[in-house]
Design goal:
Shape of chain B: globular
Largest interface: A-B, 42 and 49 residues
Largest sheet of chain B: 3 strands, antiparallel
Order of helices and strands of chain B: HHHHHHEEEHHHHHHHHHHHHHHH
Mean pLDDT of chain B: 83
Number of helices of chain A: 26
Strand content of chain B: under 5%
Radius of gyration of chain B: 24 Å
Oligomer: heterodimer
């Protein structure tokens, strides 16, 4: 017996135990110390599925849904399961040929592998949807329908106000870290959708799913123990009257301009029409990209919300405020009179006036006497109470700011502009060395020159007059279901009364405005049975140095006692305010106050005004050029894409996404090239026109 | 008859039986957790024998029959028949060249209908018995060259066949027989030589040959410098140093490249290199021959084998206490290839974490130490050699298998004893262990 080797058993034991210790140590490092593998495992083994809650619904002031959710279906395909299905039938329903079919399947396989579902046709139209549901059993299991919630606009109105959703870009993601957005999400892009994004989006839920080695989802992780529920977005109640909005959009058809109606008691916006606008439904559904490109290229810029984003000189509507300042500063009384002999001669060169006569405040407003208000402002500026023109102009500007002009009001519709009220600083910059006096800016006294306002500010100005001295910030949303958690509505409750002006002063102005409707320039805007206080305006303007037809302005509130609506209407290049803007305002007031348009004559008027084409010839020409340009470019583009594409497009086959994108890009590039940057800004600020307007105003060829 | 009944349980080492039973049941649980989906009908699948876990239950039944049969036989059978059994084993291995079934690229399987038999696997038993028989002959002394050669021939004949069948992994297991040989008096020089050769091999894999040659030369010069006095007295020492240097350089420059280019399959050398974290340097040279297929571009650091990576993720994500039975996301998602066979340990590591893995390791080390304990209490050399053979084979399997799942050893496709799915493997280890238990039960009898 070789007992002599017995000690070797310990060596062997040692080897075994050493192996054991090495393995245990390695396991300890892998499983307990290192966290890398846990992360890797979760990355590949667990799928975090974000559950999107329904977005909040927006109701109008009468509780009608104006922005809600709708389900559209995508046709999905699992390429590995389509062997036995009737491809021809499917192609017929979708209107595609087999080449296109093959292309889509190949794309699906490249993008998502053959055993995972891919989108075959996104956002099915109602017609295709009906045909597919009918035959769906023939396509199963290779094809199925997948819900996709989209925004729906039941009234198809108010596109500029309500806004639309779009996919978030990297910029957005950078600006909103930690708010749960990931690329591919949709977020509000304009309108209420963006202002109230936080309220509407709700709270996302997360479901944890297990995932297998082929990246397919299997079942829920631990039966949903770690899942969080999605909380739907809050519903909102808007002050908007959707029928009034629809009427406004109808009346403003074929015109460029804006209408804003406000409830003066609450500051709630009743209607906000920017024309030309777009039907919000164009930006949902399958044709969205195409429509978007078209709208973007329209030279009338339908995406611009003119009610808050375009600046106009207020024209004669400004005179009401001039009167207020004069009375409050004590330079005039309601009975002070000025003689008008056909022009204002206070500054040497005469400033024309259409209504010669002797006017007190009421008559001056009624007849919109330029001479009267030039005299009033001259007295305000040259008031011996103040040491210099600088200080008196600044006092004047402070009044105007208190009336809500010259600064952003803070409305909840995005892209608001502040407008401009000139101060001493403004003129010191233009005329260095204080070489200016009242005569330099006398056109400001009648709402021309350096004064710039948005239509919203003009409507708010009417609300201020209607309330006799206060306004609330105009806003679209009155209340949020379940409470205003983000404090978005708090500023809308406050009354703004910066200047204390006695009621008697307002009565004088109201008298004048009532006169406008009865005997003055606003005769066309009479509303049967309602006392309206209004003011017309005709604003001179020029485009690239060329004088254009005047902008028509009309601002009013009604009824005179307990006013319930304040309104401002502007029609660009429409000539006299009394023929276009005033009747529009009158119909809007009637609709809102009596809930209908009474009588055949008034109804015919709606149709007539709607058909009245006041689009400036300049824009008509630009649109034509754009169209033919687009046509020729498209043909060239299609030619370059080859014969097949042309055929497909001629027989009306749907473009696939990539091509549509390419086309979009082409169009964008073109619009950049064709319109030199200077030109495009001019188009946008068509209503602003700083330099040109000033020149025109100084020419003193002012009327009204 | 009455006596026979006693014979089954008499002298049986219950610790071994329990360890065996626990590990096998743990294996069943793991195979079950790999394959069972919550949507499956448990009772239906277990009876249909269509799923791996139900098949494994069937194999376990067969194994129990074999175990009882072994315990019922006279232990003299095992001392009397090793030669014949060994020859049968070799014949079976030869047979695979003619009727072998191709599984995963190696023709080493004989289809038996209800299961596939892998002779290399079963041949371990016969080799162990044959080695025990040879070493227990009265006049064998492992310090003699002739005895060493015969013992080596017994152990390594199956290796040759195995390599010819493309089963290099299983062939390596036969090196486990060095352990009983060492115990029986094989000069430790062999083990030291083998170990240094292994070290040199690993270093060769890690560094380019030129660097190594320079390093070896510097080392040799250092040795000569420090031993210059001894060398002056004894010229032979210089010759030894120079001889070793020549051998090492030849090994680094010629033997290893030859091994990787001509002996190992491409995938095998890939795996070995992936373990040390390097690109296979011999791959480009062979790829040049393949003009049509340019070598696929690999990212640096992406050399880690997919299996090993997934295996490490599954085990590493288990944490201290594991994710719980049937809650492993990696196991449920089928991320680890071959998880029910070679990578069964990943299922345990993920579901039961570090605690579970440690318990399994304790069971294995307990079994190994118990076998050494049993070996040392044997009166007969035959039983002792056999016991050490079993311990060696088990040790090799466990170390390499678990090592490969946690990135410590190359992926060479050997099973985890008693845990992995597969009738061949389970049956082999059952027979190995139960013969040992039977021999141990009869240790009072004088066996030769």
């Amino acid at each position: 017996m070789p007992v002599f080797n017995q000690s070797r058993k310990n060596v062997i034991r040692l080897i075994f135990i050493a192996m054991f210790i090495i393995i245990i140590a390695r396991l300890f490092i892998l499983q307990v110390i290192s966290s890398k593998y846990k992360v890797l495992a979760d990355d590949q083994g667990i799928f975090r599925k974000v559950i999107y809650p329904d977005r909040g619904i927006v109701y109008d002031r009468k509780g009608k849904a104006i922005l809600q959710n709708m389900i559209i279906y995508d046709l999905m395909v699992v390429p590995s399961k389509i062997r036995a299905t009737d491809t021809t039938l499917l192609c017929n329903i979708l209107g595609i040929d087999t080449t296109e079919f093959r292309k889509r399947i190949v794309t699906a396989i490249i993008k998502n592998k053959s055993y995972r579902p891919s989108v075959f046709e996104p956002l099915l139209s109602d017609e295709k949807m009906a045909k597919i549901t009918e035959n769906l059993y023939k396509f199963a299991p290779g094809y199925f329908l997948q819900e996709r919630p989209v925004r729906d606009y039941p009234y198809d109105a108010g596109g500029n106000i309500l806004g639309y959703l779009s996919e978030v870009d990297t910029n957005f993601l950078k600006k909103h870290p930690g708010e749960g957005y990931v690329s591919g999400d949709y977020a509000g892009k304009t309108g209420l959708e963006i202002t109230y994004e936080k309220v509407l989006m709700g709270q996302r839920g997360i479901q944890y799913h297990k995932r297998d080695n082929k990246n397919r989802l299997t079942d829920r992780l631990e039966n949903g123990k770690y899942d969080t529920l999605a909380i739907a977005g809050q519903n909102m109640y808007a002050s908007l009257d959707i029928e009034l909005q629809e009427l406004g959009e109808l009346l403003m058809e074929n015109k460029v301009g804006a209408v804003v109606a406000i409830d003066p008691r609450t500051g709630g916006i009743l209607a906000m029409v920017s024309s030309p606008t777009y039907k919000p439904r164009l930006l949902t559904g399958s044709e969205r990209k195409k429509h978007y490109a078209q709208l973007l290229l329209d030279p009338r810029i339908p995406f611009l919300n003119r009610t808050v984003g375009a600046l106009y000189s207020p024209g004669s509507t400004f005179k009401t405020l001039q009167g207020l300042v004069g009375l409050q500063e004590g330079v005039i009384t309601p009975t002070t009179t000025f003689l008008c002999t056909g022009a204002f001669y206070g500054c040497g060169k005469p400033m024309r006036c259409l209504d010669p006569g002797v006017w007190a405040l009421k008559g001056a407003i009624t007849h919109s006497c330029n001479t009267y208000f030039a005299n009033v402002m001259q007295r305000v500026i040259n008031n011996p109470k103040y040491p210099s023109v600088d200080s008196s102009l600044n006092v004047w500007a402070r009044y105007m700011r208190a009336f809500g002009l010259g600064h952003k009001l803070g409305v909840d519709v995005p892209s608001e502009k502040g407008g401009r009220i000139p101060t001493a600083a403004t003129y010191n910059k233009i005329y260095p060395g204080s070489s200016w006096n009242f005569c330099t800016f006398r056109s400001v006294s009648i709402g021309q020159g350096e004064v710039e306002t948005t239509p919203l500010q003009v409507a708010n100005e009417m609300a201020y007059l209607a309330n006799k001295g206060w306004y609330k910030i105009p806003h679209m949303v009155d209340s949020i279901e379940g409470g205003d958690q983000f404090g978005l509505l708090s500023t809308f409750q406050e009354k703004h009364t910066a200047v204390n002006i006695p009621d008697s002063v307002f009565e004088a102005v109201h008298d004048g405005m009532q006169g406008v409707m009865e005997t003055g320039t606003g005769r066309y805007a009479k509303v049967p049975g309602i006392i309206v206080c209004g003011k017309t305006g005709t604003v001179e303007n020029a485009y690239r140095g060329v004088k254009q037809k005047d902008h028509a302005f009309f601002a009013a509130f009604a009824p005179r006692d307990n006013p319930r609506i304040a309104i401002a209407v502007i029609c660009e290049n429409a000539g006299f305010g009394s023929t276009s803007a005033a009747p529009i305002a009158s119909l809007m007031i009637e609709k809102y106050l009596t809930d209908s348009i009474g009588g055949k004559e008034r109804k015919d008027k709606v149709v007539a005004i709607s058909k009245m084409n006041l689009i400036p010839p300049r824009l008509v020409k630009a649109m034509r050029t754009q169209d033919s340009l687009m046509h020729s470019r498209d043909s060239a583009y299609l030619m370059s894409k080859g014969y097949i594409r042309i055929i497909k497009d001629t027989i009306g086959l749907a473009e696939d996404e990539d091509d549509a994108e390419a086309l979009d890009k082409l169009k964008k590039d073109r619009s950049k090239k064709e319109l030199p940057p200077k030109d495009s800004t001019v188009v946008k600020t068509e209503a602003i026109l700083r330099a040109e307007k000033k020149r025109a105003a100084i020419k003193d060829s002012l009327i009204n | 008859m009455y006596q026979n009944k006693l014979v089954i349980t008499k002298g049986i080492d219950w610790v071994m039986i329990w360890l065996y039973a626990i590990i096998v049941l743990l294996g069943l649980v793991c195979i079950f957790s790999v394959e069972f989906k919550p949507t499956d009908n448990f009772a239906g699948t277990i009876l249909a024998f269509k799923k791996n876990y139900s098949k494994q239950v069937l194999y376990l039944g067969i194994c129990i029959v074999f175990a009882i049969f072994i315990l019922l036989t006279d232990s003299k059978l095992f001392t009397a028949t090793p030669n014949i059994l060994y020859i049968i084993g070799i014949v079976l291995m030869l047979l695979t060249f003619f009727i072998g079934k191709n599984v995963n690229g190696s023709r080493s399987w004989i289809p038996l209908g209800f299961m596939n038999l892998q002779p290399v696997e079963t041949c371990k038993i016969f080799t162990a018995l044959a080695l025990a028989k040879y070493l227990s002959l009265p006049d064998t002394d492992l310090s003699h060259k002739r005895v060493q050669l015969i013992a080596a021939a017994i152990c390594f004949t199956p290796v040759v066949f195995s390599i010819l069948q493309n089963e290099t992994g299983l062939a390596l297991v036969y090196f486990a027989f060095l352990i009983p040989m060492y115990r029986e008096g094989l000069p430790p020089g062999y083990l030291i030589f083998g170990a240094s050769l292994g070290m040199l091999l690993i270093i060769t894999l890690l560094f380019p040959p030129l660097t190594l040659t320079i390093a070896l030369t510097v080392l040799a010069l250092f040795c000569i410098y420090f031993l210059r006095r001894k060398i002056r007295r004894n010229r032979g020492l210089l010759m030894v140093i120079l001889g070793l240097w020549t051998l090492s350089v030849l090994f680094v420059g010629v033997a290893v490249p030859f091994l990787f280019r001509h002996v190992f399959q491409k995938y095998q050398s890939d795996r070995i290199f992936s373990m040390v974290g390097r690109d296979n340097p011999f791959v480009e040279k062979t790829a040049i021959l393949d003009v049509d297929q340019p070598p696929p571009k690999k990212l640096k650091g992406d050399t880690e084998n997919y299996n090993v990576k997934q295996s490490k993720i599954a085990i590493g994500s288990g944490g201290l206490f594991g994710k719980g039975f049937l809650k492993g996301t990696q196991t449920q998602g089928d991320f680890v290839p071959e998880q029910h066979t070679d990578f069964i340990f990943t299922s345990l590591g993920e579901s039961f974490g570090f605690m579970g893995s440690t318990i399994l390791m304790l069971l294995y080390i307990g079994m190994l130490l118990r076998i050494i304990f049993i070996a040392e209490r044997q009166r007969s050399t035959f039983s002792r050699v056999y016991a050490y053979s079993v311990a060696g084979v088990l040790f090799f399997h466990i170390a390499i298998n678990i090592g490969m799942t946690i990135g410590l050893a190359p992926v060479i496709g050997i099973t985890l004893p008693l845990m992995s799915y597969g009738g061949s493997s389970l049956l082999t280890f059952t027979i190995l262990i139960f013969i040992l238990i039977k021999l141990d039960a009869d240790r009072q009898m004088v066996l030769r």
